[in-house]
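fyi for ur records
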Amino acid sequence: MLPSYTVIGGRERLGSAGLSAILLNRGRHYSRRNLFHDMEKTGFDTVISVEPPPAQYDLDELTNLFPFVRFVLLREHLTLGEQINLAVSELDTPLFFVLWSDLRFIAGGGAHRMVERLSYSASNGDNSGEGSPFRRLCTVPVIQSSRFETLPTLIAPALHRKKVHTRVLSPVREGLRTLYPFDGVGIYDRERFIRMGGFDGTLKSCYWQLMDFGFRAHLWGEEIAATQMLKLSYEVPTPVEDNSTGTDYHRFYLKNLAPVFHKDYAHLPLHRFPSFLLQSRENIFSAFENFSEGRRWVNTNRFRWRCDPRTILGFWNMDNDKEGLSRLGQGTSA
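which gave:
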C-alpha cells in the first residue's frame, strides 16, 4: 500500500525516448533551475521529483518553468525504497533512471542514446527477458567523487565463517555485475521492477532494502550490472551506508538466506527456526510469528527462485575476486 501524497505539475511530456527520471532530493538546497535544465537537455520523457516534507517554497515557479516535471509532495519522510516505489507508480515509460539531487552527468549522451545502448538490438543478443526489449533489470553508471575519482560502487557478497559480508570493487570494465545499485542509482526496467515487487517497504534501513532487492533479484534470475558509457559525479562526499543489524536484517535473512532451493522451487523449512530464534534474540512467540510470516512469503513466491544464496556467493568468488575487492563494513550473520 502506497503512502498518501500530493502531485503538482507534470502537465506536459518532454520526450519520447521511453526513459523517465526519478529525482530524489537529499539534504542541502541545490540550484533546482540548473538541475532541471540539465534534465531537459538530456531529453527524459518526464521527470518525477520526490519532495520530502516540508514542501519547497519555489514549487509554483518551477512547475511553470518546467511543465515536464511532476512534483510528488510527501506528507511524511519515506525510505529510499519507498520513495522509488511511489515514483514508479506515477510513471508509464519502459525505463526509469533513479538519480539524486547531488549527482551530475559527466558522460552518457541523451535519453534516446541511453535507451539504444540498453536494448537487445544494440548488442544483437538473445532476448531472454520474458518479453522485455532490454538486457537487464538494472544498469548502474560509473560514479565519481567531487574530485572526479572513480568510486568503488559495485557491491559483491562473500561468505566467511557463516557470515555474509559485502565488499566493493571499482567498475574497471564493461558489464561487471553488482549485487545492488549503489545508493539506488541506475536505469531500471519498469516491468521487471514491478514483477519483482519493487523495494520492500517494511524494511526501514536503506542498506537492508538494497541488500534485499539485490539478493532477491539474483535469486530470481535477474541481472544488475554496470556500464562504462554512463558517468555521474557527486557534488558532496560519498554517502555512507549504515549496515548495522536488527529487525530489518532478520526479515532479510528469512527472505533471502534461510530458504532452501530444490529443483524448481524454494521453501523455508521448520528446522531453520531454532537457529533463527537464537539469532534474533526475540522471545519464542515473537520469533515464531516472524518466522511464520517469512515462510508464508517464501511459499507465495516459491516458483520464482532460480538458484540458492551459495550459487550467488560462488559467482562473485570466482568472477570478481580477481578484480581486487576491498572490505566494506561489518559482516552480518547468515
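The domain at 1-101 is CATH 3.40.50 (Rossmann fold). thats all i got for now
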